[in-house]
Write a structure and sequence with these properties.
This protein is mainly α. It is built from 7 helices and no strands. Helix 4 packs antiparallel against helix 5. It is elongated and about 100 Å long. It starts with a helix and ends in a 7-residue tail after the last helix.
């Protein structure tokens, strides 16, 4: 118990000492970039192409977010010494404040703006590349599927009737089944069927 407590205390102290808002948002971006596309691909209700498109878009969004957080953090970090000299405050405290500000600015303004500008052209380019690959490998558009269902009797009243048994719409297998059902029904009524 004491060993676990000491380790937990040491981890918390270390995280508190080197706390930076950047680490939290980068971890979130990585987890979202992995988990969201994974769960999208696991959706059984959507078709394969839609799932691929959505998963790629989600992964790309999180990659843009990850890079944006790092870039803005580096830019704001260069301002910390300048502001510390002008204000006379601790450079570490100013750097932490700027880190939080850069994360908020990036998440609220920059990432949506960058995604708005870049996602559509990138997704259009990927779609063109995929279409060219399909044509290159000879994939043809889906044609009408062959309906292999056998015709069945229209209503319950038709089942077991002589008309349904000998209907030309039924396949040979269905005709045999219906004929055997009809014969069994007639035998139950004490009627002789056949020669």
């Amino acid at each position: 118990m004491g060993f676990a407590y000491n380790n937990l205390k040491r981890i918390c102290e270390s995280l508190g000492e080197h706390n930076d808002a950047l680490y939290a948002v980068l971890a979130i971006a990585v987890f979202k970039g992995v988990m969201r596309p994974t769960f999208t691909m696991m959706d059984k209700k959507s078709d394969k192409e839609t799932k691929k498109y959505a998963a790629f878009r989600e992964g790309l969004t999180e990659a843009i977010a990850f890079c944006s957080y790092i870039a803005t953090h580096k830019i704001f970090k260069t301002l910390a010494p300048v502001l510390a000299k002008k204000t006379g405050k601790s450079e570490k405290k100013i750097a932490n404040g700027l880190s939080l500000f850069s994360v908020c600015l990036t998440a609220g303004v920059l990432i949506p703006a960058i995604c708005n500008v870049t996602l559509k052209p990138v997704m259009d380019f990927v779609k063109k590349v995929n279409d060219k690959k399909k044509i290159k490998f000879g994939n043809k558009p889906e044609q009408g599927k062959l309906d292999i269902r056998e015709n069945a009797a229209e209503t319950n009243a038709d089942i077991g009737s002589a008309a349904a048994v000998y209907s030309p719409k039924l396949s040979p297998n269905s005709r045999l089944l219906m004929e055997s059902l009809y014969n069994a029904r007639m035998q139950n009524y004490g009627m002789k069927v056949g020669g």
